[in-house]
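ARCHIVE CARD
Drawer: 12
Card no.: 0347
Subject: one protein chain, sequence and derived structure
Cross-reference: see card 0346
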Amino acid sequence: MNAKTKTVRRAQAGTTESAWVRWTLTAIALLFMLLFLVLPLAAVATEALRKGFGAYLEALKEPDAWSAIRLTLLTAAIAVPLNLVFGICAAWAIAKFEFRGKAFLTTLVDLPFAVSPVVAGLIYVLVFGAQGWFGPWLSEHNIKIIFAVPGIVLATVFVTFPFIARELIPLMQAQGTDEEQAAIVLGATGWQTFWRVTLPNIKWGLIYGVILCNARAMGEFGAVSVVSGHIRGQTNTMPLHVEVLYNEYQSVAAFAVASLLAILALVTLVIKSFVEWRHEREMKAIADLPPERPTPATT
């Protein structure tokens, strides 16, 4: 193969690097994934099953572990729908309308990415804690937020609310408003336009954002650790329960609960890959459609 043919093939592939450069970069990426992703997951599974499958199941059926699993799923079940509503509303407002304060709203959406989760938890303690701004009033009315489930939900909502909005904003901005305007001109109401035009156009981005939001909600540690109080059997989520077990030198039980978190993460990854595959398949099907022939004019 001559040099000209090699250059043409590299150009067709979108790169001009030689083969050894491509193989080296691929090897580095695979080695990185092996060291920081595959080996830790293998270590967690090995430690969880070190005393047999029976001990593994017993660690998961233990009352405190089961309570942590239920609380984690409950928190995600509340936080994700709330962020779904907020994400759609924020993305629709930012992408479809021009108003004063739009840049400030966009900045606020990104705030949890810039603020440490521990700081977010401390903010909620300052506001709703016993010595906080609303603490005395909450105590008088027997309302408990900090060191209870409401505080855990609030902290989780805060750290996860950018995920859905950040998936939808660039997508809706790229799509523009032409289709919505056409639907309104044809007589559609606002809700009809949303359900029949806007929502079908953003469904894959919306599903992707929900998947990421759910994964972060189940795995959140920092903010939840501050507001939970670490009450065993009541306010410990799965990540907090893993920490408690590990600090008590119950390594098999700790890795058993950690393996369940890893399994949930892998399931999330599989769902994410399936969503991406379906989206790519749908886009390819649309691209392969033959162009519509113009209707001949009648005289």
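Annotation on reverse: The chain has a mean pLDDT of 85. The longest helix spans residues 251-287.
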